[in-house]
Amino acid sequence: MHAGTEHPFGQGILGRAGELARLDRLLGAVDGSGPQVLVLTGEPGAGKSTLVDLAAERGRDRGLRVLRVRGSEGEAGLGLSGVHQLLHPLLPGEGLPAAHREVLDRAFGPEAAEYELKLDQLTLCVGVLGLITEAAARRPLLLLVDDAQWLDLGSVDVLAFLARRLEGRPVVLLLAAREDGVPARFDRAFPQITVGPLSRSAAGQLLDAQPDAPRGKARAEILRQAAGNPLALIELPRALARGRTGDTGAGGAGGATLPLTARLENLFAADLPGLPAPTRAALLLAAAAGPARLSDLIRAAPELDVVAALDPAERAGLVRVADGAVLLRHPLVRSAVYHAASFQERRQAHLVLAAALAGEPDRRAWHLAAAATGQDAEVADALAESAERARGRGGYAAAATALERAAELTPAPDLRARRLLAAAQAAMFAGHPQWVGELSGRVGELTGDPRLRAEASLLGGWALGVTLRHEEALALLLEVAEATAASAPDLALGALSTAATSVYNSGATRHRAELDRISGLIDGDDDPAGRAWARAVIDPVHERPLLEGHLAAGLAALAREESLGNLTALGGTTWILDETEQAVRVLGLTMDVLRRAGSAGTNATVTQALALALFESGSWTAAEDAAHEAFWMATEAGADNVTVGAGVLRATLRALRGDHAAARTAAMHAVRGVDLRRSLSLQVRHRYAMGMAAFAAGDHADAYEQLRATFTRDFRPAPVHYHASLYHLGDLAAAAVRAGRADDARTVADAVRQELKPDPSPRLAAVLHRATALLTDTDDAERHFRAALDAPATDCWPFEKALAHLDFGEWLRRRRRSAEARPHLNAALECFQRLDARPWTERATAELRAAGAATGPAPAGELTPQERRIAELAAQGLTNRDIAARLYLSPRTVGYHLHKIFPKLGITARAQLRDALTQEDRG
Asked: Alpha-carbon distance 425 to 397, whole Å?
């Protein structure tokens, strides 16, 4: 990518103006003025490493301290090796609190490989964050991650944790990876720029700048084959000068028909025959070792003068020896050197490295595995032991990788199946559902043991459900539950409980019926919590006395054993039965257990459930934090169900706080590419978010259409989702009254009234009373309003109760009962202000003022700049359409802002704007 190769930064970089500008913006964001993370992608040889090098140089010029890690295929299976490479200059972290230093020492200290106590992954991440924060307090940091596609998954998890928490710290992060290898943790979560092929003009300039620049046909052929790849444009002229490209267009095994990566790797391998045999041997050792320490190579080949042997390769620019490390110039060099050797040569290299690393059991195990010629029980056992050590440190991804390879090397089919199953379980705790599906799917091919096959199906069903493939998940899980109902009721209940989650999210009636049928086949009460969850999902409305009995049994079991399974099942059960305060408590305990176990990967689903319970209980700030955390965990894990659900909840909160435009955008983005017909719970929640965004914008017609879509258009409307739809009836009625659709809404309310008989929960009863009151034209509405408000249990859902207070206060004021209205309006206002539900705060304030209450107007100085500009133009007599044209807004947006401006200024009419603005300016 550079104009020359001898002095890379002296002659500038060609064709990368956009990329360089993005790098400069990233470096400038160390003060928090912009995004502090940038992901750089591109094909091999595109120049990513060159840009990373340049970022390092420019960062140093700006006074930043540079910390750098480069991924390596050789260490991809070693837990936390990448983070260790990055943090090594900062360790042991003398300025940190003792607890943080102890965690870092356990993870990275000299005894880390043998340390067998569990290391909580969250604690480790917090310790690493503390180390980075402490270093950044002394000098701003630039973190550079190159070849991220080869980082171990544990390091990726830690880096993703850091990347999401850089705000407020003088730290920026640049991560570079091959475009098809960006870690899932970074794939969609952060700003990304692709380093694509150079333009033909820039490619031509780069080619012409090479020492042996070709001419004529050769030049055109190289430009064609290089296809804008900078590394190929540099390397191909060298090969041409040495007579090595005469058959590149022949279309044979090494010709132009090969993918670009293969062509470049073969080109690098073509350099090797001209090197002395000792040099090739030393290079192969370095390639096999991954990030090679010189001392390792010397111990591995005592008969070889490694330093002297590497000298010709260093002179050729293939390798650099510095600071005790042997660094190959580019990962493609390593790949080319490695694959140019025969299997016997590669095997021998791994064997001598394994012997040299006898004191490092994890690395030794991986070299022995690479040297294995077939199944090898001893090597498999060594890898399994390495997996246990990784799991003890909270490195579930590394454990899964090691167990998967151990299974491949295990001769006994039954033990191989058990190791694959253990790998799938570790991958689940690491938060990788697709990987879980792949691993669990292979267990059945190895064993006829019905228990192992059933456990594998259970894991596979979990993975499918988390990724929104509910139909496939239920096909697996319900089959397992039915097949093991008599022989293994504990396993059957586990499958049934797991299936219940997909049944709920799907919302399909046939799945609930099947869940009900199979539930009746399973005897025993070994898992009361799992049974309570399954029964609650089947019918949470009509069997409350029975369900309350199941819940009591489950809570009694929880008191005896605070297991993860009990907690998860009971958290869902309490939530679905409207025991919201209990749900917050149980789900909070579940999160504590997960964190203590270091199982960060499985937290996404539990965190989303907690976010929903917090939202309903009126803890909106905590709910937003939990939804934010769930979203990022799910994005990293590929847990699409949570990614969509958490995104929809965040959009809902934006709508209720008045940011209706952003809420619409966020809600649409959350469901993009998702077939909501297969997940009716998400469909309904999405409609609610869109409906409340429209409500906040004052578009009551659209609000009604969105909320009406949570029920069918049948002659007798039914809930689209048998449970989630019911809670939106009150808001549907409120929108209907304002949109002139009360008659249609009554048909929905009448159908829901029949659906909820005979004994709805206090919450659903209040929702139905509120809707009935709003849709009633007679004085009988008062009875329903009071019924919605008088039950003390409804205090658990403060926003819903505040809406009922507001509706009743408005109803009373319109009947000239202002004194009675004011307490209700005040109660509503207090709640809306606490929740920061701005559209409803403004509405309650306006109603109170109309009811004769003293509500001091907010000064005009509290108007945002845009609100003040709109107010000034409206005061001049411009219409909404005129203002919209002036400010490049829509007339609807102008109307929305005026709706907020009037209560802030303490006015009720457009004609009062001029005086209000003048008075405030004088004040």
From this structure: 10
SS3 assignment, position 181: coil
**Alpha helices, DSSP H only, in 10-94?**
17-28, 48-61, 81-87
Q: Is the pTM of this model over 0.85?
A: no
Measured CA to CA in angstroms, residue 244 lies from 241, 255, 266, 271, 445 at distances of: 8, 12, 11, 10, 47
**What angle in degrees, to the nearest 10, is found between the helix axes of 913-922 and 891-905?**
50
Please check whether residue 43 is in contact with residue 260, taking contact to mean a CB–CB distance below 8 angstroms: yes
**Residue 214: is the preceding peptide bond cis (ω within 30°)?**
no
Rounded to an integer, what distance in angstroms lies between the CA atom of residue 527 and that of residue 489? 9
What does the pLDDT look like over 788-805, one tens digit per residue? 999 888 999 999 999 999
Helices of type H across 638-774: 640-656, 660-670, 680-696, 700-708, 729-739, 742-756, 762-774
Backbone angles phi, psi at 177, to 5 degrees: -155, 155
Q: CA–CA separation, 596 vs 590, rounded Å?
A: 10
Alpha-helical (H) ranges within 775-922 are 781-790, 798-814, 818-835, 838-850, 865-875, 880-887, 891-905, 913-922
DSSP classification of residue 582:
H
Give the HSE-up count for residue 903: Cα atoms under 13 Å, Cβ half-sphere: 19
Residue whose C-alpha is closest to residue 143's, from 177, 172, 178: 172
Per DSSP, what are the bridge partners of residue 173? 37, 143
Compute the distance between CA of residue 50 and CA of residue 46 in angstroms, rounded to an integer.
9
pLDDT at residue number 250: 30
Residues 367 and 116: their CA atoms lie apart, in Å, by 22
Lowest model confidence (mean pLDDT) among 633-637, 643-647, 788-792: 633-637
Burial class (CB in 10 A: 0-12, 13-18, 19+), 747: middle
Rounded Cα distance, 403 and 363, in Å? 14
Per DSSP, the three-state class of 851 is: coil
CB 71 within 8 A of CB 88: no
Say which residue, 390 or 540, is predicted with more confidence.
540
**Residue 204 main-chain phi, psi, to 5 deg:** -65, -40
In the chain, DSSP finds a helix count (H) and a strand count (E) of 46, 8
Calpha distance 91→860 (Å, rounded): 54
Sole residue written with tokens 């965040």: 650
Give the confidence band of 9 by pLDDT, cuts at 50, 70, 90: very low
> What is the gyration radius of the CA atoms in the chain, in angstroms?
32
> CB–CB of 663/689 below 8 Å?
yes
Q: Which pairs with CB-CB distance under 8 Å and at least 24 residues apart come from 807-810?
A: 807/734, 807/770, 807/773, 807/774, 808/773, 808/782, 809/844, 809/847, 809/851, 810/847
Tell me whether strands 325-328 and 292-293 are parallel, antiparallel or unpaired: antiparallel
Q: What is the DSSP string of 485-505?
A: TTT-HHHHHHHHHHHHHHHHH
